[in-house]
Specification:
Blueprint (H helix, E strand, L loop, with lengths): L1 H36 L2 E7 L6 H17 L5 E7 L4 H9 L4 E5 L33 E5 L3 E3 L12 E4 L7 E7 L3 H13 L8 H8 L21 E4 L5 E2 H7 L11 E3 L13 H4 L3 H11 L6 H26 L12 H25 L6 H23 L3 H19 L6 H35 L21
Parallel strand pairs: 1-2, 1-4, 2-3, 6-8, 9-10
Antiparallel strand pairs: 4-7, 5-10, 6-7
Helix pairs in contact: 9-11, 10-11, 11-12, 12-13
Keywords: Manganese, Membrane, Signal, Transmembrane, Transmembrane helix
Organism: Iris pallida (Sweet iris)
Protein name: Glucuronosyltransferase PGSIP8
């Protein structure tokens, strides 16, 4: 009996030892894997104080999620200033798997330069990337990068590597660095002593800090996966300027892998804005990546509410038109009312202009272009219907710009152009053909307003019946 109990105890101890060994080995493997991933990082920065903070927050999330989709072997890091909303930080950490490093904004000593652009005031926060000393290499990114494939081979590059988009000046939208507190402290010292900076931003500072990069060799990742030392130029395929695409409507970059698209264009033509497509063909490519990674859950309710509102406006104004038309009757115009007539004409023209501009600014900026343009066209038609019925204007004349906009979008979105020059000429030719129709609609509107005022629909004489029998059935 005692022998049986002893054997049972030995079996239990053996089983417990096996379980503990399994747990320890699993933990060790997980720790080794985590340690391996912590050697490298893709990093971006985020700060507040511009009119486009939310848009760059969305762009950063899309870029980080796209890197996760590519299964990069690196941590994802966002260097965020202390005033970034806590809700955004939680979303980045909990939903996007990003490590957020909170920093204090670096004071920009170049603010008083004559050519200083205030939107670059906090871009020197990018220097905090050199403080990420937990990593062997960091790829520092701007939020307007669109990754087509993994670029983990960049972690084999040296102490500093960047791409020359401009023939003589490298671009700081993507660069590789080896973190170092000594380098970071030296950079802060250079800021204190006022190192020359042509643009007052990170671009000008870093090009001055690494002045000899143009003379360095092109980086080619070693086949055995080892890291190289020194500074290198990166092939253009790691920062393909979108403007190169617009000329040929295709990529033709032979040097290096075609891995990353960058959009160093005007701020209001960044790819995440809904109006960027079809004005810029690559805008839709960025939104396709957002659709696959982040989606449009935050903007969709707003778009549905706006669409419902526009449909109600169109229905109400249509039902109100018969009662409005009864206000028209023939009268002799009075000279004393000429000023009010001029004001009414101006109000009608400004109302038409507002009908085509107000819906544009009501749409959330980061929605999908197809949804954005659809709601814009619906909204402009709804507001145009108010103008048509309020001023009794001819519908075709008022809606001529609407038709012209639809045609322009169709011409720009056509996918069969041989190159960007043909596309630009086609848009110009279409605009040239539309001009006479727009002018004719303008003259038609002015003539209708004049006819309406001559009938004195809006200014009947006091004490007079508003509907004389002889003119009650004019319309």
């Amino acid at each position: 009996m005692e022998d049986g109990n002893g054997r049972r105890k030995i079996s239990l101890l053996f089983l417990l030892a096996v379980v503990l060994a399994s747990v320890v080995s699993t933990s060790a493997a997980a720790s080794a894997s985590a340690s391996e991933k912590r050697r490298h990082a893709y990093a971006a920065m985020m700060y507040m104080g511009t009119p486009r903070d939310y848009e760059f927050y969305v762009a950063t999330r899309v870029m980080m999620r796209s890197l996760s989709t590519l299964r990069v072997d690196a941590d994802l890091v966002v260097i965020a200033s202390a005033d970034v909303p806590a809700r955004w930080v939680r979303t980045l950490e909990e939903e996007d798997g990003v490590k957020v490093v909170t920093v204090k904004n670096l004071k920009n000593p170049y603010e008083k330069q004559g050519n200083f652009n205030n939107r670059f005031k906090l871009t020197l926060n990018k220097l905090y990337a050199w403080r990420l000393t937990d990593y062997d290499r960091v790829v520092m990114l701007d939020s307007d990068n669109l990754f087509l494939q993994s670029t983990d081979e960049l972690f084999q590059c040296g102490q500093f590597c960047a791409v020359f988009i401009n023939p003589c000046i490298f671009h700081t939208g993507l660069f590789v660095l080896q973190p170092s507190m000594d380098v970071f402290k030296n950079m802060l010292h250079e800021l204190d002593v006022g190192r020359k900076n042509p643009d007052g931003a990170d671009q000008g500072f870093l090009t001055g800090y690494f002045p000899d990069l143009l003379d360095k060799p092109i980086f080619h990742p070693p086949a055995n996966g080892t890291k190289v030392d020194g500074t290198y130029r990166l092939p253009l395929g790691y920062q393909m300027d979108a403007s190169y695409y617009y000329l040929k409507l295709r990529w033709s970059i032979p040097c290096g892998p075609n891995s990353v698209i960058t959009f160093p264009s005007a701020p209001w033509l960044k790819p995440w804005y809904w109006w960027s497509w079809p004005v810029l063909p690559l805008g839709l490519t960025w939104h396709e990546q957002r659709w696959k990674t982040l989606g449009y859950g935050e903007e969709l309710p707003v778009m549905l509410i706006q669409s419902a509102m526009y449909l109600v406006i169109m229905a109400v104004t249509r039902m109100a038109r018969p009662s409005l038309s009864k206000l028209c009757y023939n009268r002799r115009p009075e000279k004393s009312l000429s000023f009010l007539h001029a004001v009414l004409k101006a109000a009608a023209m400004w109302s038409i202009l507002a009908a085509y501009t107000v819906p544009f600014f009501l749409i959330p900026r980061t929605v999908h272009p197809l949804l954005g343009w659809s709601v814009y066209l619906l909204g402009s038609a709804a507001f145009a219907s108010i103008v048509i019925n309020a001023f009794l204007l001819p519908a075709v004349a008022v809606l001529t710009p609407w038709i012209a906009i639809v045609g322009t979008l169709s011409v720009m979105a056509c996918p069969w152009y041989s190159d960007g020059v043909v596309r630009a000429l086609s848009v110009f030719a279409y605009a040239f053909c539309c001009a006479p129709f727009l002018w004719a609609s303008f003259t038609k509107i002015v003539g209708s307003l004049q006819q309406l005022l001559e009938r004195d629909a809006f200014f009947p004489r006091l004490g007079e019946s508003t509907q004389p029998p002889e003119f009650s059935k004019l319309y």
